[in-house]
Automatic annotation (TrEMBL), chain B:
The keyword Transport applies. Pfam families: ABC-3 (PF00950). InterPro entries: ABC_BtuC-like, ABC_TroCD. It is a multi-pass membrane protein. Belongs to the ABC-3 integral membrane protein family. One of its GO terms (biological process) is transmembrane transport. This is Metal ABC transporter permease. GO terms for cellular component: ATP-binding cassette (ABC) transporter complex. Keywords: Membrane, Transmembrane, Transmembrane helix, Transport. The chain crosses the membrane at residues 12-31, 91-113, 133-151, 163-182, 188-208, 220-241, 247-268. It is found in: Cell membrane; Membrane.
Length: 280, 288
């Protein structure tokens, strides 16, 4: 388990989904990220945690190239975002209070837009597109509401639409910004089930979370951001541990090769990625 | 009425109204979705300078209007993309400059007159020439082509710009495409409803349509239908009396349709609420 942490940044960038080195982000002259090294390898399920304003959301958006870096560099499958072409490999679930623009759009239309990176101009919607959209709707339990305007759905249901939109693109890597924030327990469970399936298929997942809730057993690696720096990178925190309590501030110095990280967090080194099966 | 249909000026007017009714709501759907409903107004103000420039330089005002309004639309998009609060004021300044510049140049221009200014501000569909129709027709083809070619990408862009970025779409290019298309639409609509009312044909049919529809495609299709109906309807209404200005008739007809749709939409939605709710998937609880 601690292997993940030890090898962070050592493996060649070509093998990793994301590789940020010395990443700095400044917004309105305020430093948000102050030199972040983070490498995410295929198959990892990384939870990026931290308090509000710690920069965790900025971090994942910078990983995707949505926010330009003011220093350092970040690579998507070995390429800087501006030169990255295989966007279909990435499924992004943004943090949104409200889905949709000024014109109504049906749930199906929004979910289908997740296929855009796989579609070509002037090509009609293919059977594969339709199947993927239908499966994504089914996965989040919104098939019956496919024809409804997304604006009419509750907050939790809108969150599910965004997740389905990412699922529809059938990407290798998912980036989810606070998918559990402000959603009902039902949606949280559904999200956990969906993620469990993705983990079984070997997908890479990076998610920002304030608290993990039912997702906790799925996480293989925890990254804690504080004041724009990574203060912990290694074993995911467990709810039983004192350090893992929601709201608890992690003050461990950033030392990926520190052997004690897992013990500090009260989690043995044997916790594998598929542990959720035994624990759920 | 039948004799009127045979006259050339009316046939030209009818074609112009049809094209405007079709194009303006199509572009308008994307603009409203992007919450830029007033973009058309902004471009319309800037286009006035273009028209006046045409009179000043003795070129076809429709052509100079295309050039200047496209330049204005690009400027507006660049200011918008920077996304700072001062952008709001920068846009306002551009609009005032457009109107003032237009009135000033028109005053200086040898052939300029208040009557001509008015015909561009409020439309003069009866004075549409064959040359105008060729320009309007070409622009209309360009606008519809953009919607057909880029429609899917523009939907994602206008729906969720960050998502568009994370999908690798050329966001800057597509933003310019939509701004330029809006500028072309303004010029198409200029002769029919006038620069001060062009935006009405981009926004009102969409606002009307979305009272009754549930999806994006449906909204656009219905908005285009409404656009054609009110444009042609307003034109026909103006033939009843020479005192009825067609531009204003078209816009008022569109507004009337909106009020009607608002009522119908309320009624329909109230009916929908009483439908039995769709069942949520029951939570699966395995043994803990």
């Amino acid at each position: 388990m601690s292997e993940t942490a030890t090898e962070t940044g050592v493996k060649s960038a070509g093998e990793s989904a994301f590789a940020m080195t010395g990443g700095k982000v400044t917004l309105d002259r305020r430093p948000i990220l102050r030199g972040v090294d983070l490498t995410v390898r295929p198959g990892e399920v990384v939870a990026v945690m931290g308090t509000n304003g710690s920069g965790k959301s900025t971090l994942v958006r910078a990983l995707l190239g949505l926010i330009p870096l003011s220093g350092g560099q970040t690579l998507l499958y070995g390429r800087p975002p501006a030169r990255f072409r295989d966007w279909w490999r990435i499924g992004y679930v943004p943090q949104r209070l409200q889905v949709g623009g000024g014109v109504p759009a049906t749930v199906r239309e929004v979910v289908a837009s997740g296929r855009i990176a796989r579609q070509r101009r002037l090509r009609r919607t293919s059977a594969a597109d339709r199947t993927a959209v239908a499966e994504a709707l089914e996965a989040v339990g919104l098939t019956a509401r496919a024809g409804d305007p997304v604006q009419h759905l509750s907050g939790g249901q809108q969150q599910r639409v965004l997740i389905a939109r990412a699922l529809a693109g059938e990407p290798d890597t998912y980036v989810m910004d606070e998918p559990t924030a402000g959603v009902d327990a039902e949606t949280q469970r559904l999200l956990a089930d969906t993620l469990a399936t993705l983990v079984l298929r070997g997908r890479t997942i990076v998610l920002v979370a304030h608290e993990l809730g039912p997702l906790e057993p799925l996480i293989t690696r925890g990254v804690v951001v504080r004041d724009g720096l990574i203060t912990h990178d290694g074993a995911p925190p467990r709810p039983e541990g004192e350090c893992a309590r929601p709201g608890h501030e992690h003050v461990h110095p950033h030392a990926p090769d520190e052997p004690g990280a897992a013990e500090i967090l009260g989690r043995g080194a044997g916790a594998g990625p598929l542990n959720w099966q035994g624990e759920a | 009425m039948i004799e009127l249909l045979r006259t050339q000026f009316f046939q030209l007017a009818l074609v112009a109204a049809l094209l405007v009714g079709l194009c303006a709501p199509a572009v308008g759907t994307f603009i409203v979705q992007r919450r830029l409903a007033l973009l058309g107004d902004g471009i319309g103000h800037v286009a006035l300078t273009g028209v006046a420039l045409g009179f000043l330089t003795n070129t076809a005002p429709v052509l100079t209007a295309v050039v200047v309004s496209v330049a204005g639309a690009v400027a507006i998009e660049l200011v918008r993309a920077r996304g700072r609060t001062s952008g709001d004021v920068a846009l306002a300044l551009l609009f005032y400059g457009g109107i003032a510049g237009g009135v000033m140049l028109m005053g200086i221009a040898p052939g300029g007159s208040n009557a001509k200014l008015n015909s561009y501000l409020f439309g003069a569909i009866a004075s549409v020439t064959t040359q105008d129709i060729w320009v309007i027709g070409a622009l209309a083809v360009a606008v519809i082509a953009v919607v057909v070619i880029f429609g899917r990408e523009l939907f994602v862009l206008c729906q969720d710009e960050e998502m568009a970025r994370a999908s690798g779409l050329p966001v800057r290019f597509l933003s310019l495409v939509i701004a330029i298309t809006a500028a072309l639409t303004v010029v198409i609509a200029m002769r029919v409803v006038g620069l001060l009312l062009v935006s009405a044909l981009m926004v009102i049919p969409v606002a009307t349509s979305q009272q009754l529809t549930r999806g994006f495609r449906a909204t656009m299709a219905l908005a285009m239908t409404i656009g054609v109906v009110v444009a042609v309807g307003g034109l026909l209404a103006s033939t009843l009396s020479s005192r009825v200005p067609p531009g204003a008739a078209i816009v008022l007809l569109a507004l009337g349709g909106f009020v009607l749709a608002l009522g119908v939409g309320r009624f329909v939605r109230r009916g929908r609420v009483r439908e039995p709710g769709v069942h949520e998937p029951t939570p699966v609880r395995e043994a803990a």
